[in-house]
Amino acid sequence: MMFSAAIYLRYKRPDIKRSFTVPGGNIGMWICSGLGIATCLLAGYFGFQAPSSYVGTASSYFNFQFFGLVIMVIIPIIVYAWGKRSNKAELAKVAAKTH
Fold first, then answer.
1. CB neighbour list of residue 28: distance below 8 Å, 6 or more residues apart
2. How far is residue 17's CA from residue 63's CA, in Å, rounded to a whole number?
3. Which residues have a Cβ under 8 Å from the Cβ of 34 and sit 6 or more positions away?
């Protein structure tokens, strides 16, 4: 997502001075970000392939990897939602005390 965000910001906010620029202008940004996205997708694909030293079926390895990924994605979402709720309650308490 960072690579696509870099492309998006290059077009959305071209006037902002940044501490680092990708050489080659927009074409350089597309090439650099495209290679980054392709590399991430390829790494994700190979991450779900069972190594030759794995003892078990390929489907059991895939299931283990997939459900581990699902858990790793769900936990931050839950923490974020819980944190937002508690922050709203805290802000409501502070606002009630000041009025």
1. 22
2. 45
3. 3
Write out pLDDT tens, residues 33-85.
Answer: 999 999 999 998 888 888 888 888 888 988 998 999 999 999 999 988 877 66
**What token pair was written down for 27?**
């074409």
Taking the CA atoms of 66, 72, 74 and 77 in sequence, report the sign of the dihedral they define. negative
In this structure, are residues 60 and 27 in contact, taking their beta carbons and an 8 Å threshold?
Answer: no
What's the rounded Cα separation, in Å, for the pair 23 and 29?
8
Tokens (6 digits) for 87: 């922050």
Q: What is the pLDDT of residues 74-95, one digit of tens each?
A: 999 998 887 766 666 676 777 7
Place of tokens 């079926």: 57
Residue 58 near residue 39, CB atoms below 8 Å = no
The token pair that represents 48 in the structure block: 């779900």
